[in-house]
Every structure is written in structure tokens, then in C-alpha cells.
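Q: Here's a chain of 220 amino acids. Please give me its 3D structure as C-alpha cells.
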Amino acid sequence: MSPETKRPKKEITLVLGGAQSGKSYYAQQLASHFERVTFMATARPVDAEMRKKIVRHRRARPVSWKTIEAPLDLDKAIRSQSPDADVLLIDCLTVYVDNVAGTEKKRKSRAKDCIEEMCDAIQACKASVIVVSNEVGSGIVPQYRSGRIYRDFLGQMNQKIAQIADRVVLMIAGVPVTIKGSNAYQSKSDTSDARWEAGGSRPSANGARKSQFRSQEMLK
């Protein structure tokens, strides 16, 4: 970023949705409007399917983006990466909460601590933050207690981050529905988010175009 280029105003955006709703796709479009993008990945290559998915997602992202692996201690990673980025893209909280829950089964207070640590780190961050997470409260009640604990943990995390967010977007079948805040990063020449999402190729701040993210394989 050149000295005369004004750094965009910090904003916190939460992108929610179900499986294959287009969350990651949409979040990456938002991130492409910043010059220095740090992608914070929470997934771990625990099996062949996940390894393939991680490789696919890496190939879909612009090579200029910095990638940080943060399956645990995400709050610390946010704080350390904040000074060197214009935006941090966290994808995703769904996996991160599962990672934390899997290592802290005996600590009932860990969910509350983790949520507070995450919110504090995001609010203290100097860069804008885009957070991707699943909306898991609309499905069937999990059969096992561990599943219900996880659902509640993630739901509480989503609630708290939504409270501090400037903008919350719910993805439904690939369509973004803004449920808090305004339509961010919308240029004056655009008449609606629909035009942008439907297939426009408006340049981003770092010269990238939306066509970089057209791969349907990365919809999530």
C-alpha cells in the first residue's frame, strides 16, 4: 500500500450460513477489496478428505494472500498478525470451536473463556476482520450430548461475535442476506449486492478480480 493510500476503516464482518451455502466464496470476495490479506485457516489435515479440501482451497486463493495455520490459539494468532494486514479472513469458526472442544473436554468453563478471548482479540485487532462460521442451530437436535455441547458452544460464539460485528451476513443458497449493518464494499456504480454476487468482475483494491474465486469447488 502506497503512503498516500488511505487504509480502509476497520470493520468486523461475520458471514454465517449452512453447509455449501457460499460462505467462503462470499467472504473471499469481501477480502479481495483489501491489499494486504491474511487468511487464517483453522482446519487440520486429519484425514484424506480434509487434506484434499485444504489443498483445493489453497489453490483457489490468490497467491498474494498470506496464509496462517491457526487450528488452536486463534486469538493469539489474530493479535500477532493484526499489525501486518489490512484484513484478516478467518475461515472458519466452525472448525476452530470443534478443535478447542476436542482438547478441553474436561473444562466446562472453556467455552466462555474461549469466546471472551476471541471477542477481545477481534476488537483489539487493528485490521478489519472477516469471520466465517456455520449457523448450526436450525437443524435437528444432536443425538449425543457431545454434539449438543458443541452446537451450544458455537451458537454462543456466533452470538457474541455478531454483537461486536459491524455487519452480519447470512448466506442462503449462495445469496447474501445482510441481517446487521450495511452492504459493505459496495461501489457507487453498483445498484445492489445482487449485481456483484451474480457474476460481476469489479476490480478489487489489490487488482484481483472476482473471477479468481469462480471455482464452485470452494463454495462452503
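Q: Can you summarize the key feature?
A: The radius of gyration is 17 Å.
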